[in-house]
Amino acid sequence: MNIFSAIVVYILIWWMVFFCMLPLGIRNIERPKDGAMPGAPVDPGLKRKLILTTAIASLLWIAIFALITSNLISFHDMSLKMEM
């Protein structure tokens, strides 16, 4: 895996994890004031979610990187078998 592929894979993993983390721990405003949307969260907790997303994405990326570079599962051989 070259550096460009590694960065692209990390970015994709990070965004998928981030979108999975967004709805966790959301509480809606009980009685919205004038101009507030009824579904708006009280505190979205984005800083905590960004930190957790980075930690989880890093662990997942390390696992995927290790799997790809170890040749435990050879993706090259899989692609050759699919061509047959």
Describe the protein's architecture and organization.
The chain is an all-alpha fold. The protein has three helices and no strands. The mean pLDDT is 86.
What pattern of helices and strands is seen along the backbone?
HHH
Taking all Cα atoms into account, the compactness measure Rg is 20 Å
| Alpha plus pi helix count | 3
Task: Give the low-confidence spans.
Answer: none
* Shape type: elongated
Brief summary of the model shown:
With 84 residues, the chain is mainly α. It has helices at 3-21, 46-70, 75-83.
Helix/strand layout:
Layout: H1 3-21, H2 46-70, H3 75-83
Helix pairs in contact: 1-2
Q: What would the keywords be for this entry?
A:
84 residues, mainly alpha, 3 helices, 63% helix, elongated
